[in-house]
Design goal:
It is built from 14 helices and 13 strands. It is α/β, with parallel strands linked by helices and about 375 residues long. The strands form three sheets. It has a seven-stranded mixed beta sheet with strand order 2-8-7-6-5-3-4. The longest helix is centred in the last third of the chain and has 23 residues. The protein starts with 15 loop residues before the first helix and ends with a helix.
Length: about 375
């Protein structure tokens, strides 16, 4: 028997699939060494803080964002060495760009496909938009399963294939030849490929050199790992005609004048952030050496500012590290391939030393 309209709760107006979902959880990091979210551990030098503060204070906050956004697009295109004939659109972080892509491609029966384990927002955004999401498991060593990916593309004919390069949470770059086979198969059936290079500052290579070869491949990056996670700014590059269509669903003024000015300021001082990325890469190698000395710990190669490791008991180790003031990410329940895995962000030399000590004591 249906309840009378007057007895219904406003919550009943919320979609059932949304009510069944879990919200994206952000751990409380108060009082911890925060190594759970792949953030750059370095802040701006004091002199640059003062200079940026003065610039932000002079902005016309009473006006909507204007021409400065176009200047940022040009600066990012130059910074990324975007190919001729391509264009760039801005997003409020990569998360918004993923949502906009899903909105733009939301035709009846459309499917989104990505390897698993992978970035959780590919599946979450597709679900929220009412698209079918198909996840294709990686191999036991977190490599692309070529046969399974090609079979899924042939079977599902997805509108979008997301490939994170490097992948999150596994931190690895995939085989170039396998990627090209996937790109070609997806192009042959008329779909898009989105190469997600969120961790490009720490990677040995980029897809940017191959981007111009394809008319159906988009490349997505973010300034979060560049060192500006707090400003929430991502960008998407691709063939101009294709990007123009996707840009139609972007909300007007989606990038605030504050975000825009911070990003322009950072690009003007790119050498500071490049030096920080270089330091993080060096710390990553030292951290890998230290982890290699711990009995019962298995690591995988990393081209990002994170390291995936497997321990005998992820929950006990995670809780032990937390009790010792170090917060990492327990990814052991995200996917069966991640059983007993933790993900560590590469921090400063001091943070990494304290993290290693907490990890060793918690094993």
């Amino acid at each position: 028997m249906t309840a009378p309209e007057s007895a219904r709760s406003p919550i009943d107006r919320i979609r059932n699939d949304v009510r069944a979902m879990h919200a994206y959880a952000v751990q409380d990091a108060s009082g911890f060494i925060k190594l759970d979210a792949m953030e750059n551990p370095f802040g701006l030098p004091p002199a640059l803080q003062a200079e940026l503060g003065a610039r932000l204070g002079a902005l016309a906050l009473n006006r909507y964002p204007g021409e400065r956004g176009a200047e940022l697009q040009r600066a990012l295109a130059a910074h990324a060495q975007m190919p001729e004939g391509f264009s760039l659109m801005l997003g409020n972080g990569s998360d918004e760009l993923i949502s906009l892509l899903d909105i733009a491609c939301d035709q009846p029966g459309a499917t989104v496909l990505a390897p698993l384990p992978g970035f959780v927002m590919y599946a979450m955004s597709a679900q929220l938009q009412g698209l079918k999401f198909v996840g294709v498991p990686l191999t036991a060593d977190f490599e692309l399963d070529e046969a399974a990916m090609l079979a899924a593309i042939a079977r599902e004919k997805p509108a979008i294939v997301y490939l994170a390069y490097p992948n999150n949470p596994t931190a690895n770059l995939w085989d170039d030849a396998v990627i090209e086979k996937i790109v070609e198969a997806q192009g042959a059936q008329g779909g898009l490929v989105v190469m997600d290079e969120a961790y490009q500052p720490f990677a040995a290579k980029s897809y940017i050199d191959r981007l111009a070869k394809h008319g159906h491949v988009l490349l997505m990056r973010t300034l979060s790992k560049f060192g500006l996670a707090g400003i929430r700014l991502g960008y998407l590059m691709g063939p101009a005609a294709l990007v123009a269509e996707i840009d139609k669903v972007r909300p007007p003024y989606n990038i605030s004048v504050l975000n825009c000015e911070c990003a322009l300021f950072a690009l003007e001082h790119a050498e500071v952030f490049e030096a920080q990325a270089r330091q993080i890469r060096e710390e990553r190698e030292r951290l890998m050496t230290g982890l290699g000395r711990l009995p019962g710990v298995k690591t995988w190669p990393s081209d990002a500012n994170m390291i995936l490791l497997r321990v005998p008991d992820a929950t006990r180790t995670f809780e032990g590290m937390k009790a010792r003031g170090v917060l990492v990410k327990n990814v052991s329940k995200m996917h069966e391939l991640l059983a007993n895995c933790l993900r560590l962000t590469v921090g400063t030399a001091d943070e990494n030393a304290r993290m290693l000590a907490a990890l060793e004591a918690s094993l």
